[in-house]
Amino acid sequence: xxxxxxxxxxxxxxxxxxxxxxxxxxxxxxxxxxxxxxxxxxxxxxxxxxxxxxxxxxxxxxxxxxxxxxxxxxxxxxxxxxxxxxxxxxxxxxxxxxxxxxxxxxxxxxxxxxxxxxxxxxxxxxxxxxxxxxxxxxxxxxxxxxxxxxxxxxxxxxxxxxxxxxxxxxxxxxxxxxxxxxxxxxxxxxxxxxxxxxxxxxxxxxxxxxxxxxxxxxxxxxxxxxxxxxxxxxxxxxxxxxxxxxxxxxxxxxxxxxxxxxxxxxxxxxxxxxxxxxxxxxxxxxxxxxxxxxxxxxxxxxxxxxxxxxxxxxxxxxxxxxxxxxxxxxxxxxxxxxxxxxxxxxxxxxxxxxxx
Length: 356
Hints:
Oligomer: single chain
CATH superfamily of the largest domain: ATP-grasp fold, B domain
Number of strands: 17
Number of helices: 11
């Protein structure tokens, strides 16, 4: 059993974006300090954390000093270089663990892991070349989607193939990066489960939320999601199965497609997740505090929801609506402290309580 961190202990966070910012706020409420490590100057999380280190991912001296200043290390995004983690892990515990990170960094590895657990995913094939893409299209047909195996998010690194004639252009869009073919899935809607596992192996899940995307970016998450009681139970059990298989510590987002044949796993994210922001208005312990509790060895909150909530991302110029939003009842505003808005940039979010 891992010892619980006492108030005054420090948590290192790799990445200083909005998730790191909200993790820092949650940690402060529990009397824990945070130290952000981010290559970019003036990261949003730096506005609320106790310390910030601005240095490249390959700066061994800066990484060593960072690790030695904290008691445990976590992260707010997946694409951290392996060599960085090698160094940090030799000095301090990293939670969630390396296996979870490695699996989520590669879409092919992730699909193999999920199907190996007996879970259903979209049909997929590795695409090292045009011959493999042609074979996948011959097997599963179009429409389909081609994705880079690594570094894609918010709709980036993806190309749709509506008919076989578009295959070569889609492969060219990958820019030589390793790619994966995914067959289209017919689904009614997408939901996600925000689940947590502690150092003792305890698991706690929040209610599944229903997601709506626009241009590949999450627009809204609504709870409760449209699910039967059986589907709701299946979603929670499925998330728990993934956490236990990974010996995971922390919060994970599990995105699912709801189909007539059951739930299909779209992807997993080994961190707090955009679709879990609703928990800030709907639960006594939100996803950010839950993650801090987990990595610090504290007991988990139960994740029980006491209100219905709609979370809306403020993307680009949406942030100019803040004055109007601030006049609306039962509306909680979270701004990320970023600079000028631009198309596709998440500037903040709002949580509207629709029923308490």
